[in-house]
Amino acid sequence: MPIPGTPSRAELVDHLVSTRIAGDVATPRENNLSHYRKLANGDRNFWLGLELGDRWQDEQDVLAVMAERVGVNDDAEYRYGQDTIDPELTVDALGRLALRLRKAADGRQRVLFATGHPGGLLDVHRATAAALRAAGCEVVVIPDGLQTDEGYVMQFADVAVLEHGATLWHTHSGEPMRAILTGLEREGRPLPDLVVADHGWAGYAAQHGLDSVGYADCNDPALFLAESEGTLQVAVPLDDHVLSPRYYDPMTAYLLTEAGLAQGD
Questions:
Q1: At 102, phi and psi to the nearest 5?
Q2: At the top level of CATH, which class does the domain 88-259 belong to?
Q3: pLDDT mean across residues, the chain
Q4: Which domain of life does the UniProt lineage start with (predicted)?
Q5: 3-state secondary structure of 138
Q6: pTM of the prediction?
Q7: Phi, psi at residue 138, to the nearest 5°?
Q8: Where are the beta strands (DSSP E) in 150-243?
C-alpha cells in the first residue's frame, strides 16, 4: 500500500521500486526495443506530437538516450526479458519538474494540464493543478466543443483528456493538444505559459514552442529525445500505468513538497 504523508528521497525510491513505478517495471525489453525501432523508422505514432525529422534514424542512438535518461539496459544485444527504469533518475527528474512548478507559482503563470493516460496519471495532474491554483496560478480552461478523429477533447478535474464512447481514452496522439491550442487562438485567448502533461499532449505543446514538461514510460522514447534536444523541458521516467493509481500518491506528495506547493509550505 502507498506510504502515508510525504516520503524522504530514500523512502520514495523504495516505494517506486516496490510498486514497480520504477526499478523492474512491467514493460518487457522486447516492447521497448520495438518502440525504439519504430520511432527510428519514422512511425509518427511513436513521435508523440513531435517533429523528429531525420535526427533519430538509428535505433542505437535512441537506446543510448534511453539508457542515460531512463535507466534501461544499455546493452544492444540484450533483446528479451526484464527491463528497468532507474528510480534515482525518476526522483532527479521530479526535482527538475518541481523547479519548473515553483517558477510557475512564483510568476502566477497560466498552466494547462493534460493526460493521455487517465487510468494512471489523471490524479497526479489533478493534485498538481490544485496546488498551483492555490498558489495563485491560472489553470487554463479549455474551449468547449473540441474534437479529433479519436474523440472529444474534454476537461475533468482541471485535466484535459480524450473522451470516446463515454470513456476516458488512452491516446499517444498530439492532435488533442493541437485542438486545444488552435481553439484558444481562435477565441483570442492567451496560450499557456506552461503545459504539464504526458504522451502527445506534452510533445505537441513542446513542438509548438510552449514550455512543456511531462511523464513518460520506458517504451515512449520521444519525450526523452525531445528533452535531450532541449525541446521539452523535463521528462520524468516512470511506468505510467501500474496496478493502482494510488501508488502515485507518495510521488505526487514528494513533487509538491519539493516545489514548495504542499499545504503549509
A1: -65, -40
A2: alpha beta
A3: 96
A4: Bacteria
A5: strand
A6: 0.96
A7: -95, 120
A8: 152-156, 159-164, 167-169, 194-198, 212-216, 234-237
